[in-house]
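<amino_acid_chain>
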Amino acid sequence: GHPGGAILPAYDPLLDSSIRHILARHEQGAGHMAEGYAQATGRVGVAIATSGPGATNLVTSLTNAHMDSVPIVAITGQVPTHAIGNDAFQEAHTWGISMPATKHNYLVTDPAEVPDVIHEAFHLASTGRPGPVLVDLPKDILNTHIEWHDPTGQVDLPGYKPNMQGHPLQVRTAVDLLMAAERPVIYAGGGIIAAGAPPELLRLAEASQAPVTTTLMARGAFPDNHPLALGMPGMHGLYAAITALQKADVI
């Protein structure tokens, strides 16, 4: 993270915390560092920035995480609630600016909601299709002492019920199509890595004898030295992968 005036109250407790804070020299860098942590560990990365220019500097890394489905929770400071909308020093409409760059975002105006919002943010970032979630915290909310509680149990959010299990009939149909194809190609995406499923991908490819191409986010999910590996298609990809996809009868 990168500290600043509006987010400073969140930094004070870190001095007595087991959480290791890594100082970034720029908020965009902090966001990309959180991305790298999430991709390397499979856990949610966290980036911290102050209000106004601090929050807007995060937008590039948030957009990158959103496009690449990387789980991040961004915590930004905001001017006090009474100053929101009054052109206060280092005020920006962070909630609106970050909306197209995040999976979800919050502007917290009740300090009692902070524990549940943080809990929900990590749940949203890491479930379904992963992505960045931003929590905007006004300075007066950060300065308020509350009785902290750690939310337990399942997060129940109306309208958000990600189904992580494939329907048996659809799976069977996909298998039948793959096995009956004359020129099948497996096009593997980053979800393979996020789900820890490279071994299953390898078994599927060898059982079906279908060549494998990968998206940029799935590089490393399938061994490049395998006889069925075609590499990555696209503008920076390999001719073999592009041609195989163009001529495939089932992808």
Remarks:
- The two ends are 42 Å apart (CA to CA).
- The domain at 5-142 is CATH 3.40.50.970 (Rossmann fold).
- The chain has two domains: 5-142, 168-247.
- Residues 105 and 134 are 5 Å apart (CA to CA).
